[in-house]
Hints:
Blueprint: E1 5-8, E2 11-14, H1 26-35, H2 62-70, H3 85-91, H4 96-111, H5 113-120
Antiparallel strand pairs: 1-2
Amino acid sequence: MKTLTSAHRGVDVTIKEVGCCGAYCKPCMKQQKAKYPNERTCLGCKLEYESDERDLSKAKCKIKVCCFRERELETCADCPDYPCETLSEFWSKKGWKYQQYRKHLEFIRQMGYEKFLMQADTWKGPRGKLEGK
């Protein structure tokens, strides 16, 4: 698995903070830690597997199982079979966010992780506007 860290606005942002589906996990993790400081909250899609604090064999998300566990990719944007039936099923769900995650993956495929992370680090949630396609 590749590791990319980008220093943006004096803060390190990494690919690990991008979910397999294209969600940007970092803002939500920060918000949850602030709101629930004494509780275990969402860790994002991929964090804590390398340190064995989480067991990847217990993952249930179809996208994470295929992308991260079986193919050892960082996101579906890296997959040679993109787009696939699993993603198409995910994108067909009701809700604006699913199409946003699709746009994130398309952006990553076209522009790369570094440009994605520089923009995503300004968002207040897991999705936002991307410029420069």
